[in-house]
Amino acid sequence: MSSYYRNFRNSVPWLILALEVVFIVVFYFLFSDDGTAISFVSYPDFQDVNHMVIFGFGFFLTFLKRYGFSSTGFNFLIIVLGVQWSALMELLSGFFIELPEEDGLTKITKATVSVTPVVISAGAVLGKTNPVQLILMTVVEITFFHISKWINSIILQVPGSSNMVHVHLFGAYFGLAVSFFFSEPPPRSEKNASTSKSDLFSMLGTLFLWVFWPSFNSILSVGENWKVAYNTYIALAVSAVTAFTLSAMTTKDGKFRMAHIHSAVLAGGVTLGCTDRRIQYPWIAMILGLLASVINILGSYCLQGCFNPTLKIHDSAGVHFTFGFPAVLGALAQVILMALERETYLPSLGHFILFYINSLCVTISVAVITGLISGFILNLKLFKTAPVSKYFEDQFYWEFPHLAVGF
Questions:
Q1: What tens digit of pLDDT does each residue of 83-118 get?
Q2: First and final CA of the chain: distance in angstroms?
Q3: The pTM is what?
Q4: Domain boundaries of the chain, sorted by first residue
Q5: What confidence tens digit (pLDDT) does each residue in 281-313 have?
Q6: Rounded Cα gap, residues 136 and 138, in angstroms
Q7: 43-383 belongs to which CATH class?
Q8: HSE-up (13 A, CA, CB side) for residue 398
Q9: Transmembrane stretches, by residue range (predicted)?
């Protein structure tokens, strides 16, 4: 135990410092903003997304009773490091893709959106990774997320900022692939559980995400932000109602289950991330919000009972049914809506749909393959994976002055 703690204490500060020095040097030489670029992102919109990522996801992952410090603290650490690395990757995109001149606020907004897959992936391995592994996973995932965007933009001609489906798909399946290489916790582990207090804080994160999700979906839209935000809100509202309904219907005593409400109320926002620009009528958004919530709750039973035990995957925060399934639903809905567009010529429509489906396959394939490679590397002895007995444990990484902790 003492050797592990010494390794953690000696490696984390130097790794963070080295990354920050690299970021400062690169920003000094490569980044400039002469004020001539026109921003299409307002500061209040950026603040909405920033609040969602930091407050929303930070509290969303605090449901484990002994992992609250790490859930919020490590989430904040990977965001502030990841935003800087993502901004650098956005700059490198300019060497491969012809991009319009952007101001600093637009750049940092795109970087914040691109960090979201890492936060989602971190939920799949919540409580099982140490800070060194999380930092390395952040750098690797953001790099390959941008590579998948380059492939979609350059080869398949699908704009990376056209929808958010790639964010949710990449984050969910990269995290699941990484989780495959981490040991499963003991069944009915005392620490792998929640309390009423931790569930309350986690629900607070859900409410933050729910409130700011319309801004998240519409932040990169040009010209139709109001329609995107409106459709997303409608879908979220229907998802919330459906979540309460199904929760009462699927429990034995007819009571609401916090685990259902915690994730299913967000399903409509995830699904609308890739279809909202093509939705012309609010009833379509409402149907998608209802279906997303149904898939979320029923999918949680299916995954926990069949899929996860068979593949030996432990999904700590349920990112598969919270983000993966609703994103797949949104992708399928996008294809159907494309096929129903009358103003598009049929030959070009068929090609566009084919390229769009290929882009989704590329995103999932890159996420799974790079996630498996990353999971294998992170479990090498060099990175000192925490023993199973110390999973979901704050005291392993944080100081508790009122407790006597021996390492």
A1: 999 999 888 776 666 666 777 788 899 899 999 999
A2: 6
A3: 0.91
A4: 43-383
A5: 889 999 999 999 999 998 888 887 677 677 778
A6: 5
A7: mainly alpha
A8: 15
A9: 12-31, 51-69, 76-96, 134-151, 163-182, 203-222, 228-249, 281-301, 321-340, 352-378
User: Residue holding tokens 């932000």?
Assistant: 225
Q: For residue 244, what are its two tokens?
A: 């309460």
Specify the amino acid at residue 323. Answer: F
